[in-house]
């Protein structure tokens, strides 16, 4: 992985952290992007969780495509995963970012 790519990965990881993104969702997306077409959303999901909702989201995102994901076009099912995560692990309901999976 090039130095530039590592820096981009770091920025993306930091952004996910700042947005309080479900770590499973963040890692699935990062793994898929790093795979550059060699790792599908489904493969990344299999290595992270057994939760069926995540698999549904990964299937839907696979249909939408990696390029569209990078452009910000994501499955609505990721938001359901994120909402479930936030209700369990982020009790501060006042934190509502303007962009991303949370807003």
How would you characterize the overall build of this protein?
- With 103 residues, this protein is mostly helical.
- It has one domain (3-91).
- 65% of the residues lie in helices and 0% in strands.
- It has helices spanning 3-18, 23-35, 41-46, 52-64, 66-70, 76-89.
Whole-number tally of structural domains: 1
Largest sheet: none
As a percent range, the share of helical residues equals: 55-70%
Structural class by secondary-structure content = mainly alpha
- Low-confidence stretches are none
Oligomer: single chain
β-strand amount? under 5%
| Secondary-structure element series | HHHHHH
Number of strand elements: 0
Mean pLDDT: 85
Radius of gyration, taken over Cα atoms and rounded to an integer in Å: 13 Å
- Helix run count: 6
The geometry reads as globular
- The span between the termini is 32 Å
Summarize the structure.
With 103 residues, the protein is an all-alpha fold. Helices cover 65% and strands 0% of the residues.
Descriptive tags:
103 residues; 65% helix; mainly alpha; 6 helices
Strand and helix layout:
Elements: H1 3-18, H2 23-35, H3 41-46, H4 52-64, H5 66-70, H6 76-89
Helix pairs in contact: 1-2, 4-6
């Amino acid at each position: 992985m090039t130095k530039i790519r590592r820096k981009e990965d770091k920025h993306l990881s930091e952004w996910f952290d700042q947005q309080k993104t479900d770590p499973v969702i963040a890692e699935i997306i990062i793994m898929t992007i790093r795979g550059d077409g060699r790792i599908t959303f489904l493969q990344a999901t299999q290595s992270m969780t057994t939760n069926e909702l995540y698999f549904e989201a990964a299937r839907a995102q696979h249909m939408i495509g990696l390029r569209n994901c990078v452009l910000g076009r994501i499955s609505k099912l990721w938001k359901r995963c994120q909402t479930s995560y936030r209700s369990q692990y982020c009790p501060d309901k006042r934190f509502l970012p303007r962009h991303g999976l949370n807003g």
